[in-house]
Amino acid sequence: ASEVEQASAAGWQVVSLGARILRAETAAISGLAVLMDRLGQFE
Question: pTM for this one?
Answer without folding.
Answer: 0.48
